[in-house]
User: Fold this.
Amino acid sequence: MFDKFRQVAELKKMRDQALAIQKQLDAEIIEIEKNGVAVKISLAQKVKEIVTNGKNDSEITEAVNQAIKESQEKAAKKMQGMVGIEGLKGLLGQ
Assistant:
């Protein structure tokens, strides 16, 4: 019975950690400028702002895709440092 309580407590702790990580990823912004298009995106991949100077759709798409790629790379590095391998093992049930 105490194992159930321990599991619930552990799940709550993991949920709280995930929410804290999400907050941090939402707060950190990547800024990319390419071909006269400026994109601001959070590490949670939420586009915050797109500024264009009369650019066409393909140039805007290219800038947005680069911003998303860079935010994913930085988010992955940040999450590795926060969770660590032991935390991932717990999530996988190992």
The longest helix spans residues 57-91. DSSP finds two helices and three strands in the chain. The first strand starts at residue 29 and ends at 34. The chain has a mean pLDDT of 80.
